[in-house]
Every structure is written in structure tokens, then in C-alpha cells.
ABM domain-containing protein
Amino acid sequence: MNTPFQMPVTEIILPIFKSEATKEAFAATLKAEKLFEGIPGLLFHRVGYVQRLNGQDVSESHRAVLALEWDDEQSFYAFFPSSPIVGELRAQMGPYLAAPAIPKLFKPSQGSLRVNTLIDGRVAQIIIGKSMTMKEEVESSWDRLVQAVRNENREVPAWNGWGIDEDEETWTGILGWGHLQDYEAAVQKTGILEAVKTFTSVEGGKSLEDFVVKFR
């Protein structure tokens, strides 16, 4: 009997570094990423460098994003928080963190691509919204935004999903732009500007954060 295919789940970590050591903290993050190699169930992991946050240039802030894919949520929970590697990560990164880095786990919406196809060596736009209760409105507004991007003849892959467990009202959407110049040119287009305005008005746009990240 064939088992139904299950899409991987995506983990996103948004560490906040101490302001006096952001450059050193980013370098430590790149070094610590090597600890993820060979973990059972972990399909993909990348560190990204935040270029824009809510439309502002923050490229000098050395802010990091970690994106990981697991074959399923059970593999994630087998690793976090009890694995000795988690303890080693905390030991390496703890001195640089202004607050504990809490991973957020997302299950993809139906039909979503795998996240690795959007971020591997690319610039990706990651939008995260908390306390989003109007799920149908959020997803339909996201679909309109994606369509507006594609109407500009841009083959931009897209992914979106909802949080798991205590993050079930947290939503994230990802656009894989390829290059920073592609993103900057596109967001000036009228159709995309209107779609962004509509999207950010859902539930008052509360708690939305918009990251543009260069992944290795």
C-alpha cells in the first residue's frame, strides 16, 4: 500500500543579535551552520543575509535568517530541543544573541513548491504575519500578489504556509526573486504596488514583517 506523499515542513529562525557585535555574530552563524550537516530528516539548510526589512535598507546590520527543510515535523521534534547539537548551537551563538532564537515551523499550503527551490543561492522575499485569523482572506490576497508579480512576465516561484502548534496563526509567504535588482525593479510597478497594498490591508496588516534576504 502506497503512503501518501507528504511535503516537507519549513523552519525559519530570525535571531536578534546584540548591537555591539552584529558582524561577529553573523560570522558565528555561518560557522554554526555546519553543525546541521547529517542530521536525520533534515533535507536542506541555508543562512541568509537580510538586505531589506519592511522596505528599509538594513544591509549594514548583519542580520541573519536561517531557513531549514525537514522531511516532517516528527524529525524536527526529534532534534529540537533535546539533541546535543542544539546545546552546542546555543553555546556557540548564545554570547551574540540579544534574546533566545525561537524556531518557527510552517506547513506548506496545498500546491506549494519546496522552499529550497526559492532560496538556494537566491534573493528571497519572506513575509511573516502573526495573529492572522482570516486564513482564506490572507491566502487569496497572497495569490493576487503572486499573480501581480507574474503579470510583469516574471517567473518568480512562490511558497506560503501556516505555522504549526503554538504558531498556527502565524503565516509566511516567500517569493524567490533571484537577484536584489529584480526585486527592486518589480516593487515599483503599479500592479504590484496595488497588490501589496491590498495584501497588507488584510486584518489591518498587523504584525507583518517583510524581509528581503540574500541566501548563500
Notes: Strands lie at 9-13, 42-53, 56-57, 64-70, 104-108, 123-129, 158-163, 171-176, 208-215. The chain has two domains: 9-107, 113-215. Residues 9-107 form a domain with the Alpha-Beta Plaits fold (CATH 3.30.70.100). The chain is about 30% helix and 25% strand.
